[in-house]
Amino acid sequence: MADPITLTIDGKPVSVAAGTLLIDAAKQVSVEVPSFCYYPGLSLQGACRMCLVSIEKMPKLQTACTTVVTNGMVVHTETPEVKNARKSMLEMLLTNHPLDCPVCDKGGECELQDAVFRYGAAETRFLETKIHEDEKKFSNLVYYDRPRCILCYRCIRVCDEGMDVNAYGIGFRAAHSEIIPNRGEHLECEECGMCIDICPVGALTSGTYRYKTRPWELTYTGTICNHCGDGCKTTLSVRNHEVIRANNRDHSGINGEFLCVKGRFGWDFVNNPQRLTLPRIRRNGKQEESSWEEALSLTADKLKSILAAHGPDSVAVVGSNRTTNEENYLLQRFSRTVLGTNNIDHHRTADFSSLVGALTAAKATDRYATMENIVGAKHIFLIGNDPTHQHPLVAYQIRQAVRQHGAQLYVISQGDIKLRRQAARYLQVQLGGEAAVVSALVGASALPNNLIAGGSEAFGAFAESLKSAVDLVILFGDAIRGDEVRTMVRWGLSMPGETRFAPLGDYANSRGAADMGMLPGNLPGYAPVTDESARRKFESAWGQATPISSGLHIKAVAEGIEAGRIKALLVFGSNPARTFGLSKSTLAKLELLFVAELFSTETAECADVVVPATSFAEKSGTFTNTFGQVQALKKTMRKAGTKSDLEILLALARLLGHKWSYQSADDVLREIIALVPGYAIALPNLLIGRAVATRPEGTPPPLEKPDLIFSSRDNLFGSGTLSRYSWALNSVDEARKPYGHEF
Amino acid sequence: MAHYENPMRGSSLEVKVLTERFGIPNVEKLDVFVQHNGYEGLRKALTMTPDAVIAEVKKSALRGRGGAGFNAGMKWGFVPRQSPKPKYVVCNADESEPGTCKDRVLIEYDPHQLIEGNIIAGYAIGSHQGYIYIRGEYRYLMEILDRAIGEAYAAGFLGKNILGSGFDFDLATHTGAGAYECGEETALLNSLEGLRGYPRVKPPFPAVVGLYGCPTIINNVETLSSVPSILRNGGDWYAKIGTPNNGGTRLFALSGHIERPGIYELPMGIPLRRILEEVGGGVWKGKKLKCVIPGGSSCPVLTASEIDVPMDFDSLSKIGSMLGSGGVVFIDEDTCMVKAAWRIMKFYAHESCGWCIPCREGTAWLKALLERFHGNGGMAEDIDTALDVSYNMLGKTLCPLGDAAAMPTISILKKFRHEFEEHLKLGSCPFEARGSESGVRVSAGVAI
Questions:
Q1: What is the pLDDT of residue A287?
Q2: Residue of B nearest to A60 (CA)
Q3: B249-332 has which fold?
């Protein structure tokens, strides 16, 4: 590192790294230099001229955002000349600005408004007619009001440089310049809404938020997005128990200001009028609304008689990959102790279990990758998966790593994924090719030629280029599972530097579902159910015995229902009818189908008892993202008539004669911290909003069947049940016809 | 080929360096050009080292004819000698400054001279590719240049191994799409790269990071057209024609209210009064001179009492104006200066690229204010507001367009404040009330 540069800003000496911009150097001595167009991480514009400062020995005022500090520089930011320059910029900006603050969405949180309050120009000398342009609708989610626009070009840059979408350009000239979509009059993009969030004024407004409220009427709760497995922090803006908006307001956490279309707009399923708010009981073949008491006692009574007549293994449980860790933990406790069966499974979208086993066997449990590792990575190896669609934050962080410090991206993929544009090396494979390539890399097996576009020559070049990689971050999708994970880990750990690994699983808490032992062969924390000492630890805490042999995985459960061996199925936050193809006639064979859900899904429609569950916005707890980072979910609002899975499980356990002492999700979390290997996390870190990494260790049983691991391959606008009930996600054209990207 | 009436009217005061071949029949053809010392400068340059070529140009005190007046040799010297990247020569033929129409004739009447200048510049900085960026409205000049470039390739003056020297140089033309801003060098580079013509943040300067991020020199047509004769006759010879530090001749485009508007090649340093009286034939219709825009519309105006100034970069700078691009606009006593200021601002408000706040909003504001003021809606505070807004633009914009708009406005507001006050007192334009002709007529060819 070069020697630091020392300069003086407003009389305060400051020492910063060479290459630092003056505007950033000023921040270090608490000197605020205002700006609109300067935005950390985006290219420099020098357009708004708000950051003009006086530098000794320079004849003219200089823009602090484009000036690189030099030794001995003497800077003044509060001279009359500088103050006047700022004020004059604001005065000029306001000449054609409509000053419709009282009705503008941005009023109260507007950077222009703040700047005028602080730096003056509240009174104008401008007496001419303002230039007016009518508002334009760029898409169902994005509107543009030219008169309010100050042309800072942040939207253009974040779309191009941050999202690699480049949907915006500038049309016309001079005072008539305006932001225009680059393709026609309509946005063709990922609809992420980053442009709206980054807009310092009310020029770009949100189709779901505009004209609904004022920012000071809202309550803000920092929580975690409920869609994909990346675990973006988000702030829900709520008024009268209605979510109005989501954005990561304080730009903290693993995603900074990033949210994709699902995070920024897709929360609206919470407000969907089709939400279930009353339990339903099937009577004479028809579901009828009932009270909570009736629904739960009916369920408990049926369970009691089935358990008595057919034994615990006649019951199976399907858990969710979008409910909290606490709920998942309780659900497996419920299954193992109250019901007494290990017949518990969920939709597994990545093989977390095999990775834990492989890293534990290799004594390398310090090599789990976190989201932060991607941003800092020099070499990234993506095997399968399309992060642009399935893991938008991962894709964003990969792009940042490539753009900002030239990270090398290596991709093996079946399709022409968009990240190919950032890839240094790209290998296209057929179905099954990812695992074959990994196997060939490690030399475990010869390369089957027909699986790879370009054959062994392309593979050779790819393998050769990988040789220069150090400190690899390996991200793998559902294509690598079971023994293939072990093979991949073996190869990865043979690479120079510290190779790190992360499986890319769908949905907000896929990782947490696996971590919490919602698997027929795993206790919480990846010990096999057959491990007596591990079992004893939980049994002594719970004061109850647990079954000693593995239960049925979901496919075996399906066969069991068909064969009449499984009499009762309890489903929490999952839709096995759709996910696993359980037909109506199969489900009809059950004596009891109990479903806790937000909506009347295909499975819920077949249920004997359906109870309305709370959504992520209405409960507290924790989620573990696909990287194993735990984050706190905070209750934002109430939804009348609904109960969380936690409350439902507590009630059912009580009705089935079990006394559980948990009062809240916090009590469950404390137990998880105490009992679950890898989850001994520091609560304060969680409470201040950090993503706390876990490092599970264990020797889980091998994967029963490869096809138990499969991703839904959702696109950017889909996430199973939740996205189906989001107006916003279904309102954009791109949800039906994804916009094109060229290479 | 001339599309317009020949603007070269001729004058006994002319010193013909750039225009020495003007009027020779078919001199735009290569064989005729070669018969009249054509490509001799290039032949000479190729016998010298690139450093010696740059030294010769420095010695000539040739200063940029685009308006900024930077020493051309010095500019070439800023290009890194060793560069892992290719280097580029870009000729700025985006002549758009109101009142200026000299590059047009240089391309139209002697295209090979410009091509020769480009090749020499390429040799001097070690570039193998040149571009001539021509304003969209000069499309017809493209045909002339493209044909000449074709001839030069055929004769071995362009392409591989030029004249057996081992030096390679390619040259291509590129047209703009009609934006004044694209005459600003970095906006020109963006436009040439196929981007929108917005200026770039400087530093880095184009000599280091220019076209496609590579070292680039950008010179005006007239600057590059001057180079062959400097090589042929020596830098000292050229420097002696002008005044110290202001070498050679330049083309002055005289327009406005004079008897003989046209384009004249005059030595640097000739007093403005002689240009008016001896070259331009004096103010038209026997009227009195009110003021002069000495070098294109961006320059602060000079009053009739200031015209004894020698027309070189330093002398004009000393009295607070600029030599600019050589477009001299004379304005007679019957012209309303409020209307003139408005008309000038109308141009800048139209041509502002819109990138930065002070230029985008300031020009629009001033245009509207001056229009209202002239249209009898003026108020006493408008004069100081206009001055203040102009000063708030001055020196605060990303590129010089904001300055170009502010400077003439400030000079008119200061030097002709009494005319503004007269408008206020009268409640209408005093000149229109008198029924006089007003407005500013510029050159014979280019009307604004």
A1: 97
A2: B395
A3: Ubiquitin-like (UB roll) (3.10.20)
- Residues in chain B within 8 Å Cβ distance of A175: 349, 352, 354, 360-361, 363-364
ipTM tops the 0.90 cut: yes
Q: Which two tokens stand for residue B212?
A: 């496609």
Q: Where in chain B is the domain with CATH 1.20.1440.230?
A: 337-428
Sheet harboring B249-256: ordered strands across?
Answer: B262-267, B249-256, B327-332, B289-293, B302-303
Residue A742 has pLDDT above 80, yes or no: no
Q: Which residues of B touch A120 (CB under 8 A)?
A: none
CATH 3.40.50.11540 occupies which residues in chain B? 30-241
- Name the percent of chain A lying above pLDDT 90: 93
pLDDT given at position A740: 64
Report the number of secondary-structure helices (H) and strands (E) in chain A: 27, 28
- Rounded to the nearest angstrom, the gap between the alpha carbon of residue B226 and the centroid of all alpha carbons in its chain is 14
Mean pLDDT score across all residues of chain A: 95
Residues 6+ apart with CB under 8 A from A311: none
A84 contact residues in B (CB cutoff 8 A): 392
Average confidence (pLDDT) over A350-361: 97
Position B448 confidence tier, pLDDT thresholds 50, 70, 90: very low
Interaxial angle between packed helices B102-109 and B111-125, expressed in degrees from 0 to 180 and rounded to the nearest 10: 100
- The residue in chain B having the minimum alpha-carbon distance to the alpha carbon of residue A66 is B201
Q: Spell out which residues of chain A touch residue B403, defining contact as CB-CB under 8 Å.
A: none
Could you tell me which residues are beta bridge partners of residue A592? A568
Among A582, A583, A555, which Cα is nearest to A346's? A555
User: Could you tell me the domains of chain A?
Assistant: 5-93 (3.10.20.740), 111-271 (3.30.70.20), 300-347+511-704 (3.40.50.740), 352-504 (3.40.228.10)
pLDDT at B444: 37
Is pLDDT at A70 greater than 50 in this prediction? Answer: yes
Q: Out of 3.20.20.370, 1.20.1440.230, 3.65.10.10, 2.60.40.10, select the CATH number for domain B337-428.
A: 1.20.1440.230
Test B395 with A174 for CB contact under 8 angstroms.
Answer: no
Is residue A562 exposed (0-12), middle (13-18) or buried (19+ Cβ within 10 Å)? middle
Alpha-carbon span A491 to A295, nearest angstrom? 53
CA angle (A327 as vertex; A325, A333 as ends), nearest 5? 100
Residue A713 tokens, joined: 């391959």
Give the closest residue to A678 by CA, choosing from A527, A471, A543: A527
pLDDT over threshold 60, residue A225 = yes
Domain with CATH 3.10.20.600 in chain B: 249-332
Domain covering B30-241, topology: Rossmann fold (3.40.50)
* pTM reported for the whole predicted model: 0.93
Contacts of A578 by beta carbon, 8 Å cutoff, 6+ apart: A601, A602, A603, A720
Return the pLDDT at A184: 81
pLDDT in tens, B39-84: 999 999 999 999 999 999 999 999 999 988 999 999 999 999 999 9
Contact call for B369 and A128, based on CB within 8 A: yes
